[in-house]
Structures are given as C-alpha cells and as structure tokens.
C-alpha cells in the first residue's frame, strides 16, 4: 500500500513537471530507487572518463616517453658522463622498497587504509608476480646492453619497476587517506630511477619503461583481487568521508623541449644559431586559497652547440677544420607567486613568475680536423667556465585532470639568464706571453634566453 501511494505521488510530480516543462531527472531517479532498491540507472561514460582509460594514462605516457628517448639514450648518457662521471651512490638498491615498507608500517600502527592487512598483502603479491613476469620476459628477450657494459639485461629497469610497483601500492592503500603518501611514494620511486641512471646502470628508456610496468602491474594486481572480493576495498566507506581543502596545491615531474631565443655564445663567436635542447625537473606549489599560492621549481636544461667551420690563411693548407664546443647545461632553481583559475572541474590554468639562481656547467672547446693526430681527430684548445647568475622565469600552463588527484599539464616557460663566461686556453698558448695575456683573460658576457614547451605529470594534494 505504501508503494502504491508513493507511486501515485511520483506520477503527480511528473504531471506537474510536464506542465511546467522542468523535469528534474535526479529526483525521478531518487524516487524510483525508493520504490525498487535494486533499481540502477545506466549512464554511458565518455571515453576519457572510463575507469580503465584513466588508469592506463600514466603507463601509456611513460611507455611513449621510453620510445621517444630511445634514439637519444647515448646523448643523454653523455650528459651524465660529462657532469657526474664518478657518481656512485647505491641508495637506489634500498629506496625502491621504502613505499612498501611504509604501507606495512602504517597498517601495523593501526592506520586505516583501503584494505585490511591480509587483502592488501594478496593484492601486493599479485602485483609483484605480474611485474616480475613482465620485466624478466622482456629483459631476456630484448637483451639490451647496460650502459656500463656489464650485462645484456638492461631493458627495462627492474629497480624502477619494483620502485613504481611499491609506490603504486602505497598510493592504492593510503592515497585516499592523504595525497602526501602518494607524492612521497612516487617521489622516492623517481629518485630510485634517477639513481639507476646516475650510477650508469640503466639508460633513460629502461627507467621510463620500468616505471610504466610497475604502475600497470599494480593496477592489474588490484583489478584481479577486487574481482575476487567483489568490491574495491575493505574500508572505502570510511575513507570516502575524508575531504581535502580543494586548493590546487601540486607537485609535478616535467620534461620538455627548450628553444633558444638568443645565440648563447654570440659574443664568444662560438655560436651563430639559436639552439634546441631539452629540459627536465620538478615543480610544485602550495596554495593558500583557490587562486593564490607560492611555488618553486628545480630544473636542468642542456643545449648542444653546433660546430663552427674555420679557415686558415690562404698560403697554409691545413684542410677543413671546425671548432667544436661542448653543450651548455643549466641547473636552475627559483621561487615566486603562482595564480590558478579553474575553467571547470577538468581544466585548470596556472600562471607563475619566479626568480632565483642558475649554475652553468663548465665545458671544453676543441678544434677538429682529419689531419689532427689525436683521438677522434680532436685537439682541446680551451675550457670555458661560466659564473653562476640570476635567473628569472615566467610561464603559463594548462592542466587536464583525469581525477581530483592527478592531471596532465601542458606548460610553456620563458627563462632569462645573464651569464659571464671566462675562457682558459691550453698550456701551449701560455708559453707565449703575448697570447697568454690576450687569450687566457678572455671574458664574454652572454644573454641566455630560451622558451620551454613540455608536459608535466601533476599530482594534487
């Protein structure tokens, strides 16, 4: 009888809505649900809102980045060999396990996560099994030589896969409790991958592919175990009550292309073209409101310098020679105000202006020619040493949010550095007092201006 009365009331409401041409579908769904608790409305989610699409975005980006950097892996290693040739710190052997240890430490301390201890362990073990099968089957099929030449099992990185499996495990269990757990987990995984590269054990594509495998393995592990338990977690009803402050504070990993707008060594006459390089780094900001915050970035950029042809006096035939200058590298950091504007729950604009410090790496200058009897037909003639300088940076970015905690950001920045470079020439020149006085005290003031275009993987907290 009560259901009949409720149905009659619904029909009267529908009649009234039609008369006013203002049907409210949400109330209709609620009323139908009251009549039949098993009633469910089926709404077709858009492609980018589908659960499997959102979960595959990060691994897809990492696999694409691995493919994109494959042809540049030797050049990227050359940057490492130039700036940190003797780097040997084995922290990556231990840091890869830190996120998983954190999960079990929190559970033993009684902190509620997505799942209870037993189910979390089962999901983790399944993830590790999937990761191990993927990594080892690819390793011993591709047989890529390690950069240090020790073995032919470089691709993909097992350390990176383990680190990102563990980071995803921490994110799954405690990311809903506090996004800081996710940021810490993925941050430690990133440092693990960086350590594999700096220790000359892996190429950059190895690390990127390993990271992608680690993330997708955890997603698959949880997918299968959730199917067995027929839900997505033991404590989701409890965790759903936890809410953030809705401020757009974030931490991101960025990589992009750097386009010179000036000739970096114009005054030194070693560069006659604007150069194209790459940039990578970290960026983050803490917002005090929905609009304003303060942020900082640490980034490294490198630019190759095109060799310059030189000619000698007409009566001296030394053949064709070129002046070759090692690439210029900039390690910069800055801090300043950030402004954010949300166009919708998916699209967000961010503007910034920062000021800080930039250190420029020293380099060498060679003369190269077929007639030079030296390794690679190159003879070093000078070294250059830039002084650290002031750097200011301004930029804009647009983020598409896959969910409230993760987004993909397209960014563009403008950087300006005023650099003073001192040149020191070879000992042979020092033997001539006149040349030594003229050349070994050579100082050039260069304007380093460049624009970066790239992508950031952005985590909000």
Automatic annotation (TrEMBL):
Domain Phosphatidic acid phosphatase type 2/haloperoxidase residue range list: 122-222
Q: What SMART domains does the record tag this protein with?
A: acidPPc
UniProt superkingdom: Bacteria
Q: What is this protein called?
A: Outer membrane protein beta-barrel domain-containing protein
Species whose genome carries this gene: Chryseobacterium ureilyticum
